[in-house]
């Protein structure tokens, strides 16, 4: 091993000695290079006045099979401008116990591997790796261009078990994650609009969301000119839970004396909820037979498909007409769950009709939520929401306009 060659890694220092101190570690003692003049870390002036010197043991990048430790003499200089200050060592930032090279190596690895795996690979504490990555994300995650925002998408995702949620907001045009915050109440999403500011809020034309009243009210308060657009997927999913499931259970209960027929109805949930285009041939045939045999299920199934057509109307006028037709059919169906759902949905009509003008939906965010789950699993859960939310922003920097 050539000591002079190794010394090139540590500017201003040469190797005094080196030796293994266990089977995996190598200790290298450094000394100031001949003619080296310390530099004040405050004003960057060079000075020969030394206040004191202490030795710091720091970790550097691994060398072959060895974990490299350096013993570095670090001076405090007596600067005429700043007073006693640590000398500046370019490859040893601040009071770190890791060299700049080691930090860069950790940053490169943590882009590819979970924090826990990087910590185990390098023999570092989980919090050390997490702190390095957190600082990297703070440097690299770009501040969104608020003045260019026009259309937003808001949705929620499960943060932890136990019904704890977070809200995420993205730019509908670039798919950049703009903001992530814990909770889904009005108070929880209000910091986003405060961050956005009155000027940027006044430029927002439309916001897509599910039927979350808290988000709706907060958008109306901060962006009164913006149209709220309710997402097709969430409305249809709600129709499936509150109407199709309820009618299916009611029909199964009425067939309690006909066990074979009751069994068919009870097991039909996924046939009724899936899109017909996604069914296999035998499933489509089974669905057809079920609907022909049960008029109430036929009614709610057909009205589910007709409800979707509201989101594909070519104009707001056509969307309103489709709504009137659908609402009339729902009320005349004689099915209590369907009638109740239709009356509640009427209060959200403006957000449904707006979809004819603003073709927005949260399906993009649904795909993002799957990736967010992967990020969360890779970390075996995050103990720091600020760090977790930065990871999400870094994963979705958005497309170039």
TrEMBL record:
Domain Transposase IS204/IS1001/IS1096/IS1165 helix-turn-helix, chain residue ranges per copy: 87-136
Q: Which residues form the Transposase IS204/IS1001/IS1096/IS1165 DDE domain?
A: 153-392
Among the Pfam families in the record, one is DDE_Tnp_ISL3
**Membrane-spanning segments:** none
Instruction: Return the InterPro entries for the record.
Output: Transpos_ISL3 (IPR047951), Transposase_DDE (IPR002560), Transposase_HTH (IPR032877), Transposase_Znf (IPR029261)
Which positions fall inside the Transposase IS204/IS1001/IS1096/IS1165 zinc-finger domain? 38-82
Coiled-coil segments? none
Looking up PANTHER family in the UniProt record yields: TRANSPOSASE FOR INSERTION SEQUENCE ELEMENT IS1557 (PTHR33498:SF1)
Which NCBIfam families does the entry link to?
transpos_ISL3 (NF033550)
Can you say what this protein is called? Answer: ISL3 family transposase
């Amino acid at each position: 091993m050539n000591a002079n060659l190794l010394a090139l890694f540590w500017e201003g220092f040469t190797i005094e000695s080196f030796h293994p101190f266990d089977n995996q570690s190598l200790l290298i003692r450094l000394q100031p290079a001949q003619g080296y003049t310390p530099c004040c870390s405050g004003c960057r002036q060079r000075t020969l006045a030394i206040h004191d010197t202490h030795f710091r043991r720091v970790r550097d990048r691994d060398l072959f099979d060895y974990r490299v430790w350096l013993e570095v003499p670090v001076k405090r200089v007596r600067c005429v401008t700043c007073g006693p200050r640590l000398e500046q060592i370019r490859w040893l930032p601040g009071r770190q116990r890791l060299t700049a090279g080691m930090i860069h190596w950790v940053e490169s690895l943590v882009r590819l591997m979970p924090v826990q795996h990087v910590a185990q690979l390098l023999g570092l504490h989980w919090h050390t790796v997490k702190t390095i990555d957190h600082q990297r994300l703070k440097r690299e995650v770009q501040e969104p261009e608020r003045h260019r925002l026009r259309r937003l998408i808001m949705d929620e995702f499960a943060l932890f078990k136990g019904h704890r949620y977070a809200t995420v907001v993205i730019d509908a045009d670039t798919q950049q994650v703009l903001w992530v915050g814990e909770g889904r109440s009005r108070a929880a999403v209000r910091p986003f609009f405060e961050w956005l500011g009155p000027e940027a809020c006044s430029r927002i034309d439309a916001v897509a969301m599910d039927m979350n009243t808290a988000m709706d009210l907060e958008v109306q308060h901060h962006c009164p000119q913006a149209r709220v657009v309710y997402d097709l997927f969430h409305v249809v999913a709600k129709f499936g839970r509150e109407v199709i499931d309820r009618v299916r259970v009611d029909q199964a209960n009425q067939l309690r004396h006909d066990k074979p027929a009751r069994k068919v109805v009870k097991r039909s949930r996924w046939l009724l909820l899936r899109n017909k285009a996604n069914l296999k041939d035998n499933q489509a045939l089974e669905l057809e037979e079920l609907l022909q045999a049960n008029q109430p299920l036929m009614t709610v199934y057909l009205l589910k498909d007709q409800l979707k057509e509201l989101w594909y109307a070519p104009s707001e006028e056509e969307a309103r007409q489709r709504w009137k037709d659908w609402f009339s059919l729902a009320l005349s169906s004689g099915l209590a769950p369907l009638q109740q759902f239709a009356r509640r949905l009427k209060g959200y009509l403006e957000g449904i009709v707006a979809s004819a003008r603003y073709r927005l939906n949260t399906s993009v965010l649904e795909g993002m939520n799957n990736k967010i789950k992967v990020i969360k699993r890779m970390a075996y859960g995050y103990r720091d929401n600020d760090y977790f939310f930065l990871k999400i922003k870094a994963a979705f920097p958005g497309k170039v306009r």
